[in-house]
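ugh ok fine here u go
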Amino acid sequence: MPSGKFDKPVVIDNHDGTVTFKYDPKEIGTHELHIKYNLEHVQGSPYKFHVDSIGNGTLTAYGPGLVQGVAGEPCSITVSNKSNAIGKMNVNVEGPSKAEVTCHDNKDGTMSVTYVPPSPGEYKVTIKAGDAHIRGSPFLAKIRAEGRKRSQITFGHSSEVSLDVQEKEVKCLNASIIAPSGLEEPCFVKKRQDGSLGISFTPREEGEHLVQVKKLGKHLPGSPFKINVLVKDIGNASKVKITGNGLKEGKTHAENQFVLHTSDAGFGGINFSVEGRSAAELKCEDKGEGVIVCSYRPSEPGYYVVNLKFADHNIPGSPFTVKVTGPGSNIIRETIKKKIDQVPPVDIGQECKLVFRLPGTNAFDMAAKVTNPTGVTDDAVIVDMEDCQYGVYFTPKEPGMHTVSVRYKEIHIPGSPFQFTVGSVQSFGAHKVHAGGLGLERGGANEPCEFSLYTREAGPGTLHISVEGQSRADIGIKEISPGTFCVNYKVTEAGQYRVGIKFNDEPIPDSPFKVYILPDVGEGRKIELGHVPDAGLQVNKPIAFTIQMNGAKGLIDGKVISPSGGEDDCFVSPIDEDSWALRFIPRENGIHQIHLRHNGTHIPQSPFRIVIGHDDADPAAVQASGNGLKECKSGVKTDFLINTCNAGSGQLAVTIEGPSKVSMDCTEVADGYKVRYTPLAPGDYFVIIKYNGYHIVGSPFKVHCTGMAVAEPGGVETSSVVVETVAKQSKHKGDQLPRFRSDPAKITSKGPGLKKAITHKMNSFQVNCQEAGNNILFVSLYGPKGPCDEIHVKHTGRNMFNVSYMVKDRGEHILIIKYGNDHIPGSPFKVDCT
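structure:
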């Protein structure tokens, strides 16, 4: 209460899954209502509301719209004044997005006020009588994004200019255009239909522009080129005309159309997004002469917010609030939340542990490696903790971000590679939470679906997990180790479900996840895939597997999906009454997925993953650096480098999300790929970098942008580029050796082979470098007639080495052991050979 005292409302169970709170206020002023479930605040709690007296003749406002609401849904307020003219009242709502306000005089001394906030955040509701605020004004309303879905599409329409360039190959070329104001943006280099080289860009200013075209960092002859932009070419959103009823009203399960007329608006791209209770299928079709037909198809009734931009500026009237009516899809949504404490930091020399759960596996087929901040990679120890839980143990020798890679049968497990910071974590937030597991891809009706959450790097906060689909979900969450959680859920009907994960009300990377729940497999549970070799499978050589039916009756069909996404020819035929054979010829190296169905339904564990040849695309080896991952300024070009040396070939996908779209390009350089981008509005941007579908360590990167807006900020705008990379090796290996930090004085050695050796037999000793840091171990043995014929050095894990050698000559030998450039204690050793 305003006095600081506490009071309890009456709680009434409505016996329909809802409760009602009743409270008789005793004081005038701002109150806070705390609502907790299992001792934790529900979403939005505490709620603030203002209590006033209506007996003094002043204007009084009440209603949920003064306190809280849901984005895209109407928020209601009632203003009461029994003895004064209600017409002198003025209502204004300000927040992250423009909210339309409607007022209706009820002719009884009250007025009903409704506003629809397009996006979540904190809104300020100002109510004035004449020029004076009413008591409690301005009010702060918390608007949450509960169950909101956003769909977005970009329809390009840029200006193309031909350049007088002799270079005909666009590979390794990059271009940028500088406007008269100094605004520099990357632009696309492309081959035109007539074979000439040209650029495409969105003109923003009138006058002479400079186009810089470079190859591997050097200007091409004639660069920079001069081009002139006329006023009629500049994209002008205010000249875009809209016709059609799709922005006035909508229907579920129907194409709601409207038409954009851009013939008089210059050059510019269309950015079309719809946000509401369901994801909507969006379409844009160019009919020619500047006419673009747009449509959206929602599946749930409610209020939807339609954002339309042309040349990065809002079209007049945007965002539009549209009421969609019609039958829904009977979607059921269940949620659960969990409070997360901050994981204590670990220091140098302290044993680190990363725990994960992976059902249906064993430790014998797993391998783990840890790469420290200086680039040195060591094996890590994997411990089987029972019930398919495993612990990865390592002892760091330096502070900073470490990369933990865990593979099962040569394939990264979900979530790998993991980020593990030694020392204090510098950046917290939802972008540091990662999720992975089969339960985020597929599952079966009436069967537990499971996935893992890793929050170690995210700091303290609250997890919100939702599952929505055709049936109610039973959700559970369990902490199996600090920073690692196991989430399981079960649904009763087949279909497509959405699993949403938020941390502190912000979605984590890749959320929401689409999960396909299969019907009950029935007899398909009995079917098993025969032995699959873990290695030795080769490209262009036939591969055959046996499928054991184990008494199941019916037909088997299958398909094989290659690493590039193509479908390989696959033949499934019966061998006898209880077994089938699957045959195919792989055409690519990498991970293939084998889909097997029994009577049209996937059998358990389908699709199976196998490695053909050697999958050399390793996301753990990809590193990103540069100022463009740390900070940027609106309207100023920035860049970063993605180093793919020793990471093999694969698909590199870069996505930048933020308050505006960005002009972006990606060009090949000696050590990988350089990404340049120009943000157009201040705020926080997230740079997402994936390699073959896996996040690289550090992704998403949070980049804060300062400066003035060049384009109108919107909700969340997305820009992407995808590149098929080629395998790269460092050309200057000697110059790029890791910076080792080691102390050879801490090395110990033992074994008979350090003092005596027997000719024509293997002699051995051990070297323990556990406490000495990381470096390269060199071993050499020199005898009376020259060097030793045979020496074997084997790393047994955790910087422990077994050394064995064979000598043929009798006499005194010199054994030299160095760690880097320094001798270990006792080296050089004198070895007597008999």
